[in-house]
Every structure is written in structure tokens, then in C-alpha cells.
Amino acid sequence: MKRTALPILIGSVLVSALLGIWALLVGEMGELQVKVLLTSLCISGASILSMACAAAWDKGRWPLLPRVGMGLAIGGFAYLIVLIWAEAEGEAVWKTAATLLILATGAAHASLVGLARLKTRHEWLVPAAWICGTLLAGLLIGAMWGEWEDDNVFRWIGVLSILLCAFTILVPV
């Protein structure tokens, strides 16, 4: 896996960076340059999330989660690239892309947090981070699809975000 994925990742990031630089330096930011730049950002995003998952996959501690995360990252960003170039309209297609990327980000985060080897008394931090991440992803997806506009939803998103950040910082500390 690593022998194949790493050269592809490096090549795609380099090509993506060159295309992004070209899009910025050409002069006016026309429609083509914006699409190229967004595609470049999508490739970088897919690469970052995939590498986070690959690190956990290589360790073999959670074999399914990193694979699902990589699939979601690559599939989600590929779908987003198609939407950008097709100039897709319709709320549902964009919400689907956002859902895939929220799930991919959650899987990448959970994969990285799951790599930690903690002392027994601190092991609870990993499942606590996973629970917060899962609840946050679910709430974000639910709020997006359900179009919830209640202040309490946004407060809970904030609370879960803060807790997730706190647990994520505490795990390696």
C-alpha cells in the first residue's frame, strides 16, 4: 500500500501545487483559474486525509477505519472535483459532498487519535475523543440536511468542537 500510495501522493501534490501556482500567477482569476485552484486544494485535502488514515493503516491497530477514511477522502474529494468542473447545481449534490468530507475528516481524526499509546489511567481519552468526534460529525450532518436553525444546535456544535480539541491536545500530551 505504502509503496504505491506515497509516490502517487507526492506526484499529485506536486502537480497540484504547480497548477495552483499557475492559476494564481496567470493574471486575472477567471473561471478556469478558480476551478484549477479549487481542484488543487481538493487534491491536497484528499492527500492530507489519506495520509492521516494511511499512518493508522500501517500500524494495523484499527484496520477498517483507516480504509474507510481513505475511501471517503478520495471519493469525497473526487466527487467535489466533478461538481466543481460540472458546475453542478442543486443543494443535495453539494450536501452529499460535504457529508462525505465530514465523514472522511472524522475518520482521519479518529485514525490519528487511535494511534496513541497511553498509560492505562489515560486510555479513556481516546474513546472520549472518538465519541465527541462522532457526535460532532453527526450533529453537523444532521444540521446541514435537516436545516436546523436552532441556537441550541450551534451551541452543541461549539461545545463538542471545544471538547474534541481538548481531547485531541490531551492525547499526545
Topology overview:
Blueprint (H helix, E strand, L loop, with lengths): L1 H24 L5 H29 L4 H23 L4 H23 L11 H22 L4 H20 L3
Helix pairs in contact: 1-2, 2-3, 2-4, 3-4, 4-5, 5-6
Short description:
The protein is an all-alpha fold and 173 residues long. The chain has helices at 2-25, 31-59, 64-86, 91-113, 125-146, 151-170. Helices cover 82% and strands 0% of the residues.
Give a written overview of the molecule:
With 173 residues, the protein is mainly α. The chain is built from 6 helices and no strands. α3 (64-86) runs antiparallel to α4 (91-113) and α5 runs antiparallel to α6 (151-170). It starts with a helix and ends with a helix. 27% of the residues are buried. The mean pLDDT is 88.
Notable characteristics:
173 residues; 6 helices; mainly alpha
| Helix content, binned percent | over 70%
Structural class: mainly alpha
Radius of gyration: 18 Å
Query: How many strand elements?
Result: 0
- Outline type: globular
Mean pLDDT: 88
Biggest sheet character: none
Roughly how many Å apart are the termini?
A: 30 Å
Q: Approximately what portion of the residues adopt beta-strand conformation?
A: under 5%
> How many DSSP H or I helices?
6
In the predicted model, the low-confidence regions spanning at least 5 consecutive residues are none
Q: Write the element-wise H/E pattern from the N-terminal end onward.
A: HHHHHH
